[in-house]
Amino acid sequence: MHALVFHGPGQKAWEEVPAPRIQQGTDAIVRVDAVTICGTDLHILKGDVPEVTPGRILGHEAVGTVTDVGDAVQNVKVGDHVLVSCITSCGACRFCRAGQYGQCLGGGGWILGHLIDGTQAEFVRVPFADNSTHPVPPGLSDEQMLMLADILPTSHEVGVLNGKVRPGDVVAIVGAGPIGLAAIMTARLYSPSHIIAIDVAESRLAAAKNAGADITVNSLNENVLDIVRGLTDGLGADVTMEAVGIPETFELAIDLVRPGGHVANIGVHGAPATLHLERIWIKDLTITTGLVDTNSTPTLIKLLASGQVDASPMVTHRFGLDEFENAYDVFARASETGALKVVLSAPQL
Ligand SMILES: NC(=O)c1ccc[n+]([C@@H]2O[C@H](COP(=O)([O-])OP(=O)(O)OC[C@H]3O[C@@H](n4cnc5c(N)ncnc54)[C@H](O)[C@@H]3O)[C@@H](O)[C@H]2O)c1
Ligand SMILES: [Zn+2]
Ligand SMILES: [Zn+2]
After folding, report:
1. Interval 64-78 mean pLDDT
2. One domain, residues 104 and 182
3. 178 lines ligand 1 (CB under 6 A)
4. Nearest to 219 by CA among 256, 171, 257, 164
5. Which ligand lies nearest the alpha carbon of 178?
6. 140 shares its domain with 157
7. pLDDT tens, 130-170?
């Protein structure tokens, strides 16, 4: 088969590799029908994630068709059309028993395209298939479902649920990439009074408006602090979210929150940020961090099926499965191309 193989920082190739085979009784093999690229894949290609070693097939998001299952798989059958989640779950360890699949101690967690071969391939081996896939309900497209492999559960769980968004809240989201946009969409489920999206790219701010932001702010040329304080009697936002992954945006998220408010960090950080405890010790803040668990994916599937969440506008570019070079290029130059999520699809069988 063909797969997108990582060959060290800055190097990748769509090349011939051996097809995956069942290794454990709990594995399934899935033919990839649709797959996307994550901002985290760009971090890997920059060399920011050293656990990813040369030879690794990238990708942790897919929708596909099951072609083989191990003898211990109970609920997934050959021919099933499934979502392959970015998080794999053993189902038995203390964290999986508590629904914290991202922290799995039994060989799961974020492993696809990280510690084992991933989904940017014609076929992928999915460990713990019963716990790590979700059936695609009739009527939902591969593209809609693909948005639930990573970005929607991430923003919902690590941003909105950790941030405890409540009716009437003012919510400020720093960063309007796919993760920030998914945070806007899923925050709306909890009826905040205002969602303020902050970014430095006009194309992203336009996308934030479409996703349901009430106010968009370009922090390069507008004073975010004044705008947020103006809306909140000078206090600051009830909830702020960091969806970029750099020190200055984390520090901004702290500056924008009101006393007693919640700051939910979603971004993956590669450098330390300064926590001004000398200013905030008195403010009763709750600051959360997290890796997605995907324990809200079944709920999000129901919300997609009922039309309460529509993730399809996130897909801006479409390619064939063999066009990874081109798709990565368009995705990496998002500020010029306007790319949000790019989808690569296999030919229909
Ligand atoms: N915690 C998790 O489980 C998890 C899961 C997936 C992704 N992530 C992380 O979430 C972050 C966002 O992901 P994404 O795919 O949306 O990334 P992205 O790079 O597409 O989007 C980041 C956005 O931030 C904006 N930005 C850059 N500098 C800024 C600044 N100084 N002020 C305001 N905005 C600025 C960019 O214009 C861009 O629109 C990344 O760090 C990603 O690795 C975390
Ligand atoms: Zn991801
Ligand atoms: Zn586990």
Report:
1. 98
2. no
3. yes
4. 256
5. 1
6. no
7. 999 999 999 999 999 999 999 999 999 999 999 999 999 99
Residue 160 carries which side chain, given as an amino acid letter? V
Return the structure tokens found at 148.
């639930």
110 alpha carbon to ligand 2 midpoint, in Å?
Answer: 9
Q: What atom in ligand 1 is closest to the CA of residue 175?
A: 24
Atom of ligand 1 nearest to the CA of 40: 43
Residue type, 110: W
- β-strand partners of 263: 240, 287
- Does residue 199 line the site of ligand 1, with CB under 6 A? yes
Q: Which ligand is nearest to the CA of 201?
A: 1
- pLDDT per position as a tens digit, 241-297: 999 999 999 999 999 999 999 999 999 888 899 999 999 999 999 999 999 999 999
Amino acid at 201: A
| Closest atom, ligand 1, to C-alpha of 158 | 1
* Residue 15's CATH number: 3.90.180.10
Domain count, the chain: 2
pLDDT surpasses 80 at 349: no
Return residues with CB closer than 5 A to ligand 2 (ion). 38, 40, 150
From the CA of 334, give the closest atom in ligand 1: 20
Predicted TM-score (pTM) of the model is: 0.96
Task: Indicate which CATH number applies to the domain containing 249.
Answer: 3.40.50.720
DSSP string, 29-57: EEEEEEEE--HHHHHHHHT--TTS-TTPB
Whole-number Å distance, alpha carbon 91 to ligand 3 midpoint, is: 5
Instruction: Tell me, yes or no, whether 220 and 114 share the same domain.
Output: no
**Under a CB-based contact definition with an 8 Å cutoff, are residues 81 and 137 in contact?**
no
For residue 75, how far is its CA from the centre of ligand 2 (angstroms)?
26
Ligand with smallest separation from the Cα of 211: 1
For the Cβ of 39 lying below 6 angstroms from any atom of ligand 1, the answer is yes
Shared domain check, 136 and 15: yes
What phi, psi does 188 have (nearest 5°)? -60, -25
**Domain end marker among 288, 308, 335:** 288
Name the β-bridge partners of 126: 28
How far is the centre of ligand 3, averaged over its atoms, from the C-alpha of 92 (Å)? 5
Do 138 and 66 lie in one domain? The reply is yes
Instruction: Tell whether 216 and 137 lie within a shared domain.
Output: no
Q: Which domain holds residue 208?
A: 153-288
Specify whether 9 is located in the same domain as 131. Answer: yes
Q: Are residues 35 and 95 in the same domain?
A: yes
